[in-house]
Amino acid sequence: MNQADKVYLDLCQFILEKGTRKEDRTGTGTISTFGYQLRFNLQDGFPLLTTKRVPFRLVVSELLWFLKGDTNVRYLLENNNHIWDEWGFQKWVESEDYIGPDMSNFGIRSQLDEEFNKLYREQMSIYQEKVLHDDDFSQRFGNLGNVYGKQWRSWEGADGQVYDQIQYIIDEIKRNPDSRRLICNAWSISELKGQMLPPCHFAFQFYVVDGKLSCMFNMRSTDVFLGLPFNIASYALLTHLLAYECDLEVGELVYTGADVHIYSNHIEQVEKQLSREPRPLPTIKLNRLVKSIYNFTMDDIELIGYDPHGPIKAPVAV
Q1: Mutual orientation of helices 114-133 and 85-93 as an angle, nearest 10°?
Q2: Catalytic-role residue among 12, 184, 200, 246
Q3: 262 labelled binding-site residue
Q4: 107, 136, 153, 314 — which has fewest CB within 10 A?
Q5: Which pathway features in its UniProt record (predicted)?
Q6: Would you say 95 is a known binding-site residue?
Q7: How many structural domains is the chain composed of?
Q8: Tens of pLDDT, residues 273-313
């Protein structure tokens, strides 16, 4: 059994057996535990789970979006990535500009009411088209505030200066690989009210030893079934990209979670995933002609040998 799936499935089993029932912001309800850590040896393969298909191209486009410093979902929509749509959509339907049918609590209602789900999908389609083709609308309702890309690439300090945290890490690795300050922080307390979703993966740190780059990322809140597989793959890819930029091999990826939970409407899906046998992990190949991580495109990152079980659908709690 590959260790990536094993440690992830062990976490799922632990929450189901030992977790505590809790209410949450979305009204869905969770089974939760506090404080959990997973470790992945990136030399053993790329940790894209095989017990369900994880759409790698969505992982790639989201990470490239972060690295661009972008906060508008237009880039994601242009790359057929819809994992952030609900937050921009919520911003629109809660505004005075929205004149369509009532979309309150759309995340839950769309799962329970087929007639409402049809209306929701119609309004979401309108939203997506307007973000793609209406610049003013895109600026107002496609922009999610100062989320990850802004914090990673354009952190605004109390001194009035703007800091590129990713570039700082790259420069510091090359200058002083033994540094204990290879840290990026996305949690800005003064900007939480302006963000559609305050950062869940709020900080990460790199560590260099024996010519290998390792990364630990920290999450205040983890949706184990839908979110965590993406987060693991995204930070693994980020580690590969920074290792490439800094002429290093990859080492270990470490996840540390605080409130680690399974939503109550994901339990059946988790149990289905637990019944599946893991398969060999894939690998990735980067285009060596690209000189900077900021210049990578979707076509420059290739996934090799991915043979997972089929996808398992589940609703997103918004």
Answers
A1: 100
A2: 200
A3: yes
A4: 136
A5: Pyrimidine metabolism; dTTP biosynthesis
A6: no
A7: 2
A8: 999 999 999 999 999 999 999 999 999 999 999 999 999 98
